[in-house]
Fold each of these.
Amino acid sequence: MTFVPRRQSDVAPRSAVSNGQRAGTAIKGAPAGFFLNPAAILVLMLSLFPFLFSLGMTFTNWNLLYPGVDFRALENWRRLFDDETLGRAVRNTVFFTTAATILEYVLGLMLAILVLQIKRGQRFFRLIFLLPMMISPAAVGYVIGRMLFSETQGPINNILFRLGLPYVPWTSNPGVAPWTIVVADVWQWTSFMFVLLLAGLQSLPGEPFEAARVDGASNWQIFTQITFPLLVPVTVTAVLIRSLELFKLIDLVRVITAGGPGTATQTVTLYVYDLALTRGDMGYGATVAYALLIIVILYATFYLWLTRRAVEKVA
Amino acid sequence: MKIRKLRHVPAAILLIVSLLLTAPGSGAFVGAQDDSASRFEGVQVTVAGPAGQVECIETWANQWEEETGGQVNINPIPFSDIDSKVLAATGTDTFLADVYYIGSQTAGQLMAGDHVIEVPEELRDRLGLDQIPDIYNKYQLSWNDKLYGIPWDGDMLMLNYRQDLLSDPVYQEEFKAQYGYDLAPPESWQQYADIAAFFTGKDWDNDGAPNYGLAELPMRRNHAWNGFLARAAGYAKHPDDPAFFFDPETMTPRINNPGFVKALEDWKTALQWGPPDMLSFDWAGNAQAFVGGRAALNIQWADIGPMSIDPETSVVAGKVGFGVTPGSTEVWNTASGEWETFDEPNKAPFAGFGGWIYVVPKLSEQPEAAMDLATFLGSPGVRVEAVTTPGCGVNPNSTELLDPSIWVDAGFSEEAAQEYTKAIQDSLANPNVVFDLRIPGIPDYKDALEIGVTKALVGEATAQEALDEVAAEWEAITDRLGRDQQVQYYRESLGIAAE
């Protein structure tokens, strides 16, 4: 087995660049604002207005279920710090994000390396591994979480029972239920990591690997000292995208455990959904959503700072 | 010239008044005295209700269409969304439907806020209100003695048990040897626990898999509220005190008093005798566990009766007995702040959820036709057909529906029909019955309690810690909504506003 990637293409076609430049010169002279303003106004209306409007909501007691809206200054923001359910939801969300991202990355990388070795049928496996990503998360939650992992009716516990193994409380035990969610998420989204990492592996240059082979490096040495460091840019992107998605996890949890048992699988987004759409508490719901945004921004900033330092060290 | 102009004034006034009275969305109601077959020709009436249940009205809606020329559109909304959709539509003055098929808790909020139309006197005769027990007339359909709700469903948590197992001589002998008293339908939660423990692990259907003692409703976002309060009422609803959830003078929550705490501790203990996945049992999961033959005891609504005789869903036809939910001999008295010991278990049946009813919102675009349709659906003739139709989710809510012969005709044995109707009748007639909370803020109070209760059930907190958290959250909710206003609503909901 070897980790040496096959090179798919050398350089981007130069003609594309020059064509783009020619296209740019064709509209020279036309006022840039004429073309930019409609798009800019549309973007402002569709993104900035809701953003500012929802920020304004955080300072009110607006509840859909009751008439009247009063200005409440920072009351909702203060409430964040006394909210035990939110604290639990943040901890759960961090757990799901960490556990699922790591597992998806490791499995995705393993699958990508395996598929890269296959001479024939690579496209078939690429398609097969992509399928889970195309299924609705609600369907995945139902089929995996509610049917396969059904504790008394599902086939998994039935097989365990027939093998004489102990019954597993997949969704009713607060220690096990979070892992059931992670398993469902990993099943669905490992393919995302697989696709990105496979593309990354295929685009790696061949020369360092050939030189390493000539120098007698083992497969493990090639992987740890050449393949993995060269994959860091793709890894950074893939992990960032996936972890940002996981911070917003709601669909699988809603279907599989509805946040329970107790609050063992409650996520921040599910809590926002509860507050805003079940209780109608738009003011506090928006505040929690903003708190999540702040957490995600801090995370992304820290993560990018950390990875930049790591990349600089490797370089 | 002047006189000629004034001649048009009376006609103009008449025109304006008639336009105001019939303007869509005005909320004004004109009594439907016209019985002609085309009195609502071309009028479209939309009914919004819980998906999986509201579709059941189609047969009777078709009848109404034939009788009036109107047209009914049914708008099914997922069960978990219906309350929020209706309340959001109300809060934002948005039309959702002409008739709401909605739970009593949410209906109470709409009545308290004066968002629904009072049932006109001339249509009340249709409803057979003299057959409706006081508990429903007073707490389900009315607010401050004004009738807003149209009867449809009656909800009372009750005990369902495997009659065949409890009367089995072998089990009876074994049980007596083990517990020192006769095996019989449980009267108290302690007996209930003994019976559940006794049957757990027994393979009475000889399928090689162990069965369970009980099936209950502990799932958050589903019916943990009802499952817990059905049990807690026996411990915490003192017969001398009309209030249960709050102090009616101050809205101080009682949810963390020793009665509720003891009920939660006992409930946690009882979980071990249920199927291992019971914490994720929704309404259907609970029902299937019992009618599927896997549990000996069950706490559910009266739906289990018709379901148990449905050969498509049940393996326990003819094997089920029915009773009032058990009580407790130890009862917490809030007034004295002490436990009291009763000679007989204190039974406090819990009208959890309170039943589905119809209301016509003031936002209705066709209030006259909507009220006509709703009162047609709520008439005794339609209700009799609805309660005996499996899958409609409609339970008896009036005395004529508790005539055992109706249930014998529906497929019950004579004995089961007697027992079924008696259990419901005894629950309704119990002076200590608890009707569900139906004041503004119910989604918040409910979610807070379900979080606390399930935290205790899975061991994230002790019963006392969990319920202390719930009490603190309830206080915060009350403060946010306005304590004085909430006190008034709570007192009105109990029918003690004037006291």
Amino acid sequence: MNDGNQEEMHTSVARTIERVARESYGRLVAYLSFHTHDLASAEDALSDALVSALETWPQNGLPQNPEAWLLTAARRSLIDGIRHHRVVVGAEPTLVLLKESSTEPALSTAFPDERLKLLFVCAHPSIDPAMHTPLMLQTVLGLDAARIAHAFLAQPKTMGQRLFRAKTKIRHGGIPFEIPGERDLPERLDAVLEAIYAAFGIGWDDMFGIDQSGRDLAEEAIWLARVLLQLMPGEAEVHGLLALMLHCEARWSARRARDGRYIPLSEQDPKQWSRPLIEEAERHLAAAAKRSRPGRFQLEAAIQSVHAERALSGCTDWAAIGLFYRQLIQISPALGIRVGYAAAVAEAQGPAAGLAVLDSIASDDVSHYQAYWAVRAHLLQSLGITHEASDAYDHAIGLAEDPAIREFLLRKRG
Amino acid sequence: MQFALLIYHTPEEFALREKDYSDPHLGAWRAYYKALVEAGVYVSANALEVPETATTVRHREGKRRVQDGPYAETKEQLGGFIILDLPSINAALEWAARCPGASIGAVEVRPLDPETLRRGFTG
């Protein structure tokens, strides 16, 4: 084989490993840690397995069942690791467990999918809520700490340590690897959904410019929601969350002009929205509605669905959007939702009415909230209160993180 | 707890300083400073003259060595600094991300070390 061919082989193997890793990572970690509750060791073992796959697959060719191959290799590495640390009290029963399970005919693809339990473990109430999303991204999707740190604007080293501490807590804190019972399910599922939505990047529902630091993770979040839906097809809010994210994703490319300029939703060309994604979102929203169990994510998706109708009708039913926001505020009076409501009221009843809604929000809460100032500036400007408007624009510009949004606001400020 | 945001500029960004007051780049900086002051986190700040004005001094084996230019010849050069009073490194990273300098050059966040300074003064 000449060098060129060999190189090609290597890239193709590397690509296969990448694909298998992405598709199987969470399944393998969940399965490998199910008895031991030891996520860190399961991940280490899997990464050993991936390294040895990179070494042996180009020589011996791809195994018939790459996932099963990885499982065997990872399990061997886990057992070696435990033997190595045999002095540690309590390692013996684990070893027995692993050995037992290694004699089952697990090398078919039919090993049980424990990812749902893993998702509930990651969003367990005894774990710091700030770590729910990072844990999911790492254990279910295999993202490394540095990448997660980018998205969450944290120091990579600190993020690594916090992930490690959370996993230690899972291992020793008696957090059960199970799907919560009927009584706890709604609350526990909310935590899982919240964590997935946090990965997507909060605040898409607002019209005038928001930080979008979570954008990097949008695809991963949609992936997580699809996994969750596969595992819990009967939950209305899972459909709702997926519908919400798909609606936003459908508009992704329309949010930027060719020169990188930011385009707010009201000025976007609906022809640039992705029809298939909108249709998929609508199917999920309809599936959710059939369950007659409304919730926060379904309402947010419904708002996006009204926006999407502009592609057909040419106009936006702001009264309907305001109504959905009012219902949302009753479920969760979060700042983003109240600011979104103010914007909807302004569109439906005029800027003065919108401003009155903004004024009703306590000022302590909003001093650092960029979207509040962007909407406020826009409304003051529409009312001709120019001095206060330019002050509010300064606020919004000073708090903006995305350079495109900063420029957009600078242009509007004039 | 105090943090320094060390603002590293590209040559292009240094050149933007010549622009007049209405330039959007300066508008962004002005808004950013205003936000820092209004949030009550601002301690002090200063901009540095362009790197071409720098002179670097070393003392080695009894001899003074004086050199034109900055300490390190890198593409991005220290253009200024901001001192902020904040509860945590996370808050400092948030303000660094909002800094207009972060979207062109880079912003390095470093905690101040007043303890070392105090020891230096008091022996």
